[in-house]
Amino acid sequence: MLDVLLAVASALECMVEGVRFAREAQLPEAAGVLLGLLVGSVLLVRRRWPVVVVLVSIAVMPAEMGGLLSVVGLYTLAASDVPRRITTLLAGMTVVGTLVTTFLTLRQDVATQEDFNPPAWVVPVMSLAVGLVLTAPPVLWGLYIGARRRLVESLRERADGLERELSLLADRAEERAEWARNEERTRIAREMHDVVAHRVSLMVVHAAALQAVALKDPEKASKNAALVGDMGRQALTELREMLGVLRTAEGTAARGVTASDAPERLAAVASRARVPAEAQAPAPVAAGGVPEGDGAVPGAGTPGEGQAEGPSLADLGDLVGQSRAAGMVVELSVDGPAEDPVGAGLRYAARVEQTVYRVVQEALTNVHKHAPGARARVRLAHREGELAVQVENGPCEGDAANAGLPSGGNGLVGMRERVTALGGVFVSGPTDAGGFRVSAVVPASLPAA
Predict the structure, then answer these.
(1) Are 313 and 346 in contact (CB under 8 A)?
(2) Checking CA distances to 6, which of 100, 285, 333, 412 falls within 20 to 30 Å?
(3) Is there a contact between 312 and 270 (Cβ–Cβ < 8 Å)?
(4) Where is the composition biased (Low complexity) (predicted)?
(5) Predicted TM-score (pTM) of this structure
(6) Got the DSSP string for 153-185?
(7) Cβ atoms within 10 A of the Cβ of 281, count?
(8) What letter does residue 194 receive in the DSSP assignment?
(9) Could you tell me the domains of the chain?
């Protein structure tokens, strides 16, 4: 609408000036009206072709037409994205054209007045002033408007870019938070599985053996029943402590536990899954699955000093002793220093030792569940820059396979997650002899004293 109004005003101006020009040039007035209409209507295309508008205004300057056309055209040209050299050239041509036209008109007017004789410099100076006044303001204003428009567009684009970047960062932060929550859930589930599953599995094995000897030897059965009860109470206590850690911050505040303490509390609870072999020995029973001789069972005793960091390689002997106490034939071999057969004097990173311990623990638990009565072999190798462990069991013997325990299918998954989290390699699968093998290699720095 603005362009249409400007074009109408310019056309009316040019039509009036065209009639005057036609009279001076002794042409029909209709020709002047038509010329003015065509010239003034050029403003309709000023936004698309500003150079054409300025060129037309320069072309009709000798006819003293298009004052509004020249001013609006120069403003539009300066405010557009036309290269500055073209704008400067056309502005200079407009100044020169206005200067020449004004100079000739003023000199003719002075010549026709006999009583007015101004100095010679008046006409050129006035012509130059008119040219600058009609050209400089629209050009400067157009340059200012164009620069401001480009600045606003640049700021808008930058704001849009920042908004998109913030949106991406927010989405990425949400993804990281969700990933962290999932990782924490997985870690908590893995810890609960490691702490409870091994203990409860041995409880079931002892309970099955007690059923076999209950009538033959009531005294042994009573002692082992008390042992199973102690194991169950200890497992229940650990489970309750873990569930307490998982409560909301409001629920744990009364216990003096905050959300940030959850990983440490879980690690402390998980460390209670290992107990020294001398803590409590089960009563000897017959060979029907109840242990004979000394050995440790999970859940006996209380965690000693320094155990809050979790299990280590020094506890592998106790772990194997627990399985032996449950009636499993387990062989432990260590490839390392001869004076340190179980690697107790070698120290690796805490996570490395805990991972190896958990792999052995879960592998032996799986033997209790899926291959009761089978022989098992645990091999530990101290190598340069890495620590390797392998747990292999043979096939089930006789009817022992019918005593399988329930399984959630998370044992192998948890072992693989633990090993791969440290950049290690985990392999598991059946053997040709009908048994099962679990192998893990965990990278580690050279052992420090």
Answers:
(1) yes
(2) 100
(3) no
(4) 280-289
(5) 0.48
(6) HHHHHHHHHHHHHHHHHHHHHHHHHHHHHHHHH
(7) 17
(8) I
(9) 2-166 (no CATH), 171-443 (3.30.565.10)
